[in-house]
Amino acid sequence: METISVEAWISNLETAIDSAWLRRRRDRTDREGPPLGPRRRALSKLNLAGDTRLDLGALVASGSNYHVPEVNLTEGNLLRIAVLQTGAYAKAKLKSLKGKLTKQKKRRKALRKKARRLEQEARKAPSARKKRAARRDLKRTRRQAKAAGREIKSLRKQISALERQLD
After folding, report:
1. What predicted TM-score, i.e. pTM, was given to this entire model?
2. Contacts of 123 (CB under 8 A, 6+ apart)
3. What is residue 153's three-state secondary structure?
4. Which of 74, 75, 86, 125 could form a disulfide with 130 if both were Cys (CB 3.0 to 4.6 A apart)?
5. Rounded to whole angstroms, what are the CA distances from 152 to 24, 98, 116, 128, 159?
6. Closest to 151 (Cα-Cα) out of 90, 95, 108, 117
């Protein structure tokens, strides 16, 4: 078995990856769909000669990064962005829920009005057949109004939970 240096092994590996990538790209262009984009290397080599960049990965992983200004600044910025996005999302969700609540209230009011009209119709129906039909419609309308009431209750609960979360 022959021995090979690490640099030669890495070079051979990169060549194999590049040729496999080209084969995949060629296969993809033969099929339907857009071709693959330019190849991007996910990993880069560290501690090369002349490389003066700070290895933040090792610094963060060391566990002693509590007072590193670059990391603290980045972490603070990410937290601030997350808080702002969460607040904006919660406000938009609250507005949406209030709109749904208004819609359900209008629906319940209309259904109750329709139920009152159907009650009169059922009382004043000239025949038993029309009376039965009016009662059937009345029953369905009351069921829908009750469902709207349950939806209103659920929406109010969601709104109050979201308002508590925002405070």
Report:
1. 0.53
2. none
3. helix
4. 125
5. 55, 10, 21, 36, 10
6. 108
Q: How far is CA 75 from the centre of its chain?
A: 23
Q: Is the dihedral of CA 156, 162, 163, 164 positive or negative?
A: positive
Distance CA 81, CA 78 (A): 5
Which pLDDT tens digit goes with each residue over 39-97? 444 455 666 777 776 666 665 555 555 555 666 666 677 777 888 888 888 889 999 99
Q: What is the mean pLDDT of residues 98-124?
A: 96
Separation of alpha carbons 144 and 111, rounded Å = 7
- Cα 145 to Cα 119: distance, rounded to the nearest angstrom: 14
For tokens 């469902």, the residue is: 147
Task: Give per-residue pLDDT as tens, 122-139.
Answer: 999 999 999 999 999 999
Beta carbons within 8 Å of 114's beta carbon, 6+ residues apart? 141
Assigned token pair, 92? 């938009």
The span from the CA of 150 to the CA of 86, in Å, is 28
Rounded-to-10 torsion of CA 104, 105, 107, 112: 140
Token pair for 111: 């259904």
- Rounded CA gap, 108 and 111, in Å? 5
